[in-house]
Specification:
heterodimer, A: 947 residues, alpha+beta, Immunoglobulin-like, TATA-Binding Protein, six-stranded antiparallel β-sheet, five-stranded antiparallel β-sheet, 40 helices, 18 strands, globular, B: 154 residues, Beta-Lactamase, two-stranded antiparallel ribbon, 5 helices, 8 strands, clathrin adaptor activity (chain B)
């Protein structure tokens, strides 16, 4: 318990915080908080008017509770009241509460904006700063609408206090980031630029952030800032460490401002004016020189501040990429840091050198550090530093050092951290291909990759080695020999079997002369792996076998015998069975000529950008890749499948008597496995999504998804309702198509103006789902309802939901609302009936980890059979009776219809009534790799729970 | 800067400041994941890491971790010194600051941060000027000082 020694500020608050800290358990804490919430609520609701102090205290307690992670749904009004208090501390707490807990409730925003307006015009600098801080913290569009035109005036006015100018500059920056269309500098531009000359260093420090951001967007309008920035920088760099008084930080003059100035200059090309450029080069040289001087202090703060400027200067030098002398000096400086005892400096040096490696002037200089970097890869104790070393090796690789670098990366892979293995594999594969002089080295490298890190070798990597082997006849014999040897290993990775099967099926004849690798030996070797492999690999092997019959007629009898055996010809997997039956038939009725035509060697693949490169770019996330590159990689993905399609052409003859058009009729199964590659562990990290949503073009209102889950198992109902608006929904789906009717009802008696709705498919969804609609009438009369029709087409598997953004004006205030539209993958289910025997046979075949998802969840309410059944039917599957031997269990089957493919799903729900647990033992099995299923079960689970 | 988090060795959040609009749910998820990631790191490791598409800069002071998420083009070392300057400001204001000061006077910690950083950018880097602004405000209210026995951050 803290002792209060002087005054008692908010004693009640301190006591409350102590109480919370003394709680022994989470339950006790929640109990204490609920008690406090009840107390505060009764105080706020009580008849007696609260004085300002009590209001402040309670608002502060609510804030504390919120910051502990609990929801707060009242007290906003009291906080707003505090804003208009003339006591500074009450106002301050009110603003803090608003800043932390802002709510887009329009009534409240209007009141808050009123209070801000009063404080901005109060001419009291402390109040003005508080108001500006609040705008900068909230940064909502409503605030931008209200204040974006006022703040530039405050910023440049001659009589504004320095501290207010600082807040105004950064406040404007925040508004510009959220609503660039509302912040118009126009007439203020030149006066804002001249803030770089301000006498007060703090004003310059704040203003330069604003200027940098504006320059990035409108470089021409702000280009006069370059010469001002150079002269300011020059004055700082040449000043003695004491000149700048309190802006000197551990003997380094104005490090923050220096970094920001160097950063601003990176928005522009090198200055054209010779004098300005000369001055700047001088500055950069001085900064590089200072790095060699003995430190003025042993404190880490001194060296950090000094090196922060140095790294920013190096960034500028790299950005200009025009001063060979500076580039080489920068490289040497970074070279010193590579061996520095400070891990942070080693990390940054590796990172910075990566960009230096791509400059023609410094590429050679970077290469001289190869041994140090390799050593870092081997000895650094921190994985994030090793990752940087691997990146740098990749960046500095060229024809002269590729063999060494690839060898080092391969040997590192054996012990590499799991988190970076996949990326390392891609990088090795790319370097091996890019710098291969002789392709036997390339083949060796990729096979080594599969041997060392088979699990991390994605489809793209092994497709690529096959494309290259097929296209280059000088390497085919070597490839056949090498895979044959690799397959001799007692335990070899399934990816090795795939590559081996494909290559021997095409080019096994090239090594068949050697009795040690005669046709039968080759076949027996492949077939010895068959039983350990998954269905897609087995399918590929069956195709290799039929190719063998063509290549080596002497193997025909043996292979036909294999195809004829029950485990093939009666295999419960449709694909395998079909291949076995058709290949057997083909081999027995077709003449040698026909066989030779159908099973001809694969024609060369068209030359194109490596599919792995595209994958690596994709992995780097949207931040690092431009839109065009992303499109390229998408197209690349398409072409990859296209490559499979050509195989399909060859196969169509073989499969001409196929009764069902199979999506994986491709001879070697590339097509059937393609979806896995096409849907890489959608690493679209949360932040990427989140921040792209937060971007200037996206709605600022948070997505409301309350109504969303309720529609997983039903198609009609009320999606959203508040005091103003009700949105109803009616939808119907057939095959991969759907139609959704949206009904917007105006609940008020006042007209909604500028009513617009936008449906968007964020991110990946764009290519997965096609949603079309016509704009609605912009006016919705009071009490009226308007209708909008959406046509939906499911192109392929998807997991996100489309967003519906609604904007309209109600009584002058802009309303902005974003909802998730309840379009989920299960809407495209077609129920499938099957017998118990069929069900379990299929169930057992689907045993790959990626074909299965299991979830155990607790039911909140009683598990009523009828309700559960209704839910499962609502999901879109067929509910199968008398299938599961245990009558308590529910089993379902259905086929998801998308434009590109059809995917069968089996589901089993095992309720455990005693434990009130829905134990779903292997609840979901799908016949193809199906990336959405786990998500989709999430939809299911909260829903079944909310019965 | 996109956000700043202060948390204890036990993973309890002591201060959170967000400079980009995110829903409450997203904030909670980000803090949970990031706190876990950082607490799993060993001492002496690098103060920087790539996390999702952000750069994380963090430093531990006694029992408290200070952690900033900055964008790709931002300078890691200067961010590290932003953290240090903030700790210095807290230290100067509270007089040998410790974790309990920040728990019991969380509102002060927010006010000081707002004077120093605004909208994720350095507003005023002079220690004297920041503290002057805070002290002026304090003149307008009763001062309270708590005494604790705890490890000081600096």
């Amino acid at each position: 318990m803290p002792a209060v020694s002087k005054g008692d500020g908010m004693r009640g608050l301190a006591v409350f915080i102590s109480d919370i800290r003394n709680c022994k358990s989470k339950e006790a804490e929640i109990k204490r908080i609920n008690k406090e919430l009840a107390n505060i609520r009764s105080k706020f609701k009580g008849d007696k008017a609260l004085d300002g102090y009590s209001k402040k205290k309670y608002v502060c307690k609510l804030l504390f509770i919120f910051l502990l992670g609990h929801d707060i749904d009242f007290g906003h009004m009291e906080a707003v009241n505090l804003l208009s208090s003339n006591k500074y501390t009450e106002k301050q707490i009110g603003y803090l509460f608003i800043s932390v807990l802002v709510n887009s409730n329009s009534e409240l925003i209007r009141l808050i904006n009123n209070a801000i307006k009063n404080d901005l015009s109060s001419r009291n600098p402390t109040f003005m700063c508080l108001a500006l801080h609040c705008i900068a913290n909230v940064g909502s569009r409503e605030m931008a609408e209200a204040f974006a035109s006022e703040i530039p005036r405050i910023l440049v006015a001659g009589d504004t206090m320095d501290s207010v100018k600082q807040s105004a500059a950064l406040c404007l920056l925040r508004l510009y980031k959220t609503s660039p269309d509302l912040v118009l500098m126009g007439e203020w531009t030149s006066r804002v630029v001249h803030l770089l000359n301000d006498q007060h260093m703090g004003v310059v420090t704040a203003a330069i952030s604003l200027i940098t951001c504006l320059s990035q967007k409108n470089p021409d309008e702000f280009k006069t800032c370059v010469s001002l920035a150079v002269s300011r920088l020059s004055r700082i760099v040449s000043s003695a460490s004491t000149d700048l008084q309190d802006y000197t930080y551990y003997f380094v003059p104005a490090p923050w401002l220096s970094c920001k100035l160097l950063r601003l200059l990176q928005c522009y090309p090198p200055p054209e004016d010779g004098a300005v450029k000369g001055r700047l080069v001088e500055c950069l040289e001085t900064i590089l020189n200072k790095a060699q001087e003995p430190p003025k202090s042993k404190k880490v703060q001194h060296s950090n501040a000094k090196n922060a400027i140095l790294f920013e200067a190096i960034s500028l030098i790299i950005h200009y990429d025009s001063e060979p002398n500076l580039l080489v000096r920068a490289c040497n400086q970074l070279g010193q840091f590579l061996q520095h005892r400070e891990t942070n400096l080693r990390y940054l040096a590796l990172e910075s050198m990566c960009t230096l490696a791509s400059s023609e002037f410094s590429h050679e200089a970077v290469k001289t550090h190869i041994e140090t970097v390799i050593n870092a890869l081997k000895t650094e104790r921190d994985v994030s530093v090793r990752q940087r070393a691997a990146d740098l090796l990749y960046a500095m690789c060229d024809r002269s050092n590729a063999k060494q670098i690839v060898a080092e990366m391969l040997s590192y892979l054996e012990t590499a951290d799991y988190s970076i293995r996949e990326e390392m594999v891609l990088k090795v594969a790319i370097l091996a291909e890019k710098y291969a002089v002789d392709y036997s080295w390339y083949v060796d490298t990729i096979l080594n990759l599969i041997r060392i890190a088979g699990d991390y070798v994605s489809e793209e990597v092994w497709y690529r080695v096959i494309q290259i082997v097929i296209n280059r006849d000088d390497v085919q014999g070597y490839a056949a020999k090498t895979v044959f040897e690799a397959l001799q290993a007692p335990a070899c990775h399934e990816n090795m079997v795939k590559v081996g099967g494909y290559i021997l099926g095409e080019f096994g004849n090239l090594i068949a002369g050697d009795p040690r690798s005669s046709p039968l030996v080759q076949f027996n070797l492949l077939h010895s792996k068959f039983h350990l492999c998954s269905v897609p690999t087995r399918a590929l092997l069956l195709s290799a076998y039929i190719k063998f019959i063509n290549l080596f007629p002497e193997t025909k009898a043996t292979i036909q015998e294999v195809l004829r055996c029950d485990s093939q010809i009666r295999n419960s997997d449709v694909e395998l069975q079909q291949r076995a039956v058709e290949y057997l038939k083909l081999s027995s009725i077709a003449s040698t000529d026909v066989l030779a035509t159908v099973l001809e060697e694969m024609p060369p693949f068209p030359e194109r950008e490596s599919s792995i490169l595209a994958k690596l770019k994709k992995k780097k996330g949207p931040g690092a890749v431009s839109v065009t590159e992303l499109e390229d990689s998408k197209r690349e993905g398409g072409e990859l499948n296209g490559g499979g399609d050509r195989g399909q052409d060859t196969a169509t003859m073989a499969a001409s008597n196929a009764s069902t058009p199979s999506p994986s009729a491709d001879l070697l199964g590339i097509r059937s496995t393609a979806p896995l590659g096409a849907a890489p562990a959608s690493a679209g990290s949360l932040l990427v999504d989140v921040f792209s949503e937060a971007g200037p073009t996206a709605p600022s209102a948070a997505v409301n998804d309350d109504g969303f889950l309720r529609f997983v198992c039903k198609n009609n109902g009320v999606l959203f309702e508040n005091q103003l608006l009700q949105i109803g929904i009616k939808s119907e789906y057939r095959q991969n198509l759907g139609r959704m009717y949206l009904f917007y009802g105006n609940k008020t008696s006042v007209q909604f103006a500028s009513f617009t709705t936008t449906v968007s498919c964020p991110g990946e969804l764009q290519s997965q789902l096609n949603v079309q609609t016509k704009p609605v009438e912009p006016l919705v009369e009071g009490g009226a309802q308007i209708q909008q029709v959406l046509n939906i087409e499911c192109l392929t598997d998807f997991s996100d939901a489309p967003l519906l953004n609604i904007k309209f004006r109600y009584g002058g205030a802009l309303q902005n609302l974003t909802l998730k539209l309840p379009v989920t993958i299960n809407k495209f289910f077609q129920p499938t009936e099957m017998t118990s025997h069929d069900f379990f046979q299929r169930w057992k075949q689907l045993s790959q980890p990626q074909q299965e998802a299991q979830k155990i969840f607790k039911a909140n309410n009683s598990m009523d059979t009828e309700v559960l059944k209704a839910k499962l039917l609502g999901l879109g599957t067929a509910l199968l009776d008398n299938v599961d031997p245990n009558p308590e269990n529910y089993v379902c089957a259905g086929v998801i219809q998308t434009k590109s493919q059809q995917v069968g799903c089996l589901l089993r729900l095992e309720p455990n009534a005693q434990a009130q647990v829905q134990h779903t033992d292997s609840p979901e099995r799908v016949s193809h790799n199906y990336s959405s299923i786990p998500n989709f079960l999430h939809y299911l689970s909260p829903y079944s729970v909310n019965i | 800067m996109q956000f700043m988090l202060l948390f204890s060795r036990q993973g309890k959040l002591r201060l959170q400041k967000w400079y980009v609009p995110l829903s409450d749910k997203e904030r909670k998820k980000i803090s949970r994941d990031l706190v876990q990631t950082i607490l799993a790191r060993k001492p002496k490791m690098c103060s920087f890491l790539e996390w999702r598409d952000l750069k994380i800069v963090y430093k531990r002071y006694a029992s408290l971790y200070f952690c900033c998420a900055v964008e790709d083009q931002d300078n890691e070392l200067i961010t590290l010194e932003i953290i240090h300057r903030y700790v210095e400001l807290l230290d100067k204001y509270f007089g040998s600051v410790c974790e309990l000061d920040i728990i019991f006077n969380f509102e002060k910690a927010y006010f000081i941060l707002d004077e120093f950083l605004l909208g994720g950018e350095a507003q005023e880097t002079s220690k004297k000027n920041v503290l002057k602004a805070i002290e002026q405000a304090d003149l307008l209210q009763e001062v309270r000082i708590f005494l604790y026995h705890q490890i000081h951050l600096l």
